[in-house]
Design goal:
There is one protein chain. This protein is mostly beta strands. It has 3 helices and 15 strands. Helix 1 crosses helix 2. It has 2 domains: 154 residues, no CATH class; 111 residues, no CATH class.
Length: 298
């Protein structure tokens, strides 16, 4: 009797292993899992899936709808290293998503204010070697002009203590942003990020700059400065971001000339500084100092 039970147990174990291998390493297994997910999640539809769950895989025609809001994704291509799960690590080698459209329903009532952020703790370490998301469109339902993002590139990792961003590049028609640093998704969310950016407005010169963000959601310090076509620096402290936001800051410009931004503007070299403080609905200018260099005001 014991021998029969042992043999039966071995066959059951072999059957489970075979089923797992089938689901992990065959295209039919991936398609079965995708179909189960689509049937289990209300509002989710998926057109096709190719590859295997063990990677690489390619999923097309994803749509998720909830009420008047919906998200569509033309294609997601993913490759990862499932063997790293033995080290409690989800290691994603590459993630590419194309053609993302987000339509958000118009708010009918004022949202409840967020006063506390949750502590995020994950059982696995997540490593992302490279992710590229391209052709993103975000539209508030009822509006005419969506926000277009050409590409978002990301490289980094996350564990139970921190999110480390090794590379974050965002490209939009009017803005290019690069950032890196760390964020701890616990407590007051301490963070330190460095940034560099370029701003483009039609008929105006491109503005380039860099800076950093450091602090917590209780007190965040932001420093930014421009390099070209003129020098300007700004520093601001923001307190109680989630509850009763207050800010105070200063900005100064050196050798600023309107003609550097637009050649049709006057050639009027300026330097100056301004400081102020306020809240989300109020702003007060504390000091304002402007010097005109080699020119006059008519």
């Amino acid at each position: 009797m014991k021998r029969v039970l042992v043999i039966t147990g071995i066959f059951i174990l072999l059957g489970i292993v075979a089923a797992m291998m089938y689901l992990m390493h065959t295209e039919a297994g991936l398609q079965w899992l995708i179909n189960r997910a689509a049937h289990s999640v209300s509002g989710l539809t998926i057109t096709s899936a190719r590859g295997s769950l063990s990677g690489p895989m390619k999923i097309r025609g994803i749509r998720y709808a909830s009420g008047e809001s919906f998200v569509t994704i033309d294609e997601i291509a993913l490759d990862w290293k499932p063997s790293r799960l033995l080290r409690l690590e989800a290691h994603i080698s590459s993630l590419n998503a194309e053609g993302i459209r987000i339509v958000a329903a118009a708010q009918t009532a004022e949202a409840e204010p967020v006063t506390d952020l949750p502590d995020v703790s994950i059982p696995l370490k997540i490593v992302l070697e490279k992710a590229v998301i391209s052709s993103i469109s975000i539209l508030q339902n009822g509006e005419q002009n969506p926000v277009h993002i050409q590409t978002v590139s990301l490289k980094g990792e996350m564990d139970s203590k921190a999110i480390r961003i090794d590379q974050l590049d965002v490209k939009m028609p009017e803005l290019t942003l690069a950032a890196k640093g760390t964020i701890s998704p616990r407590g007051d969310y301490p963070m330190h990020l460095t940034t560099s950016w370029k701003a483009r407005v039609p008929e105006y010169e491109e503005i380039t700059g860099q800076g950093e963000l450091e602090g917590t959601m209780k007190l965040l310090r932001i420093k930014q400065e421009t390099n070209a076509p003129f020098y300007c620096s700004a520093g601001i402290k923001i307190s109680d971001i989630l509850e009763n936001i207050h800010w105070e800051g200063t900005a100064s410009a050196r050798d600023f000339n309107p003609v550097k931004l637009n050649r049709s503007w006057p050639d009027l070299p300026l330097s100056g500084a301004v400081s102020g403080h306020g809240s989300d609905i109020k702003a007060d200018i504390s000091t304002l100092d402007v010097n005109i260099l080699n020119g006059t005001v008519a």
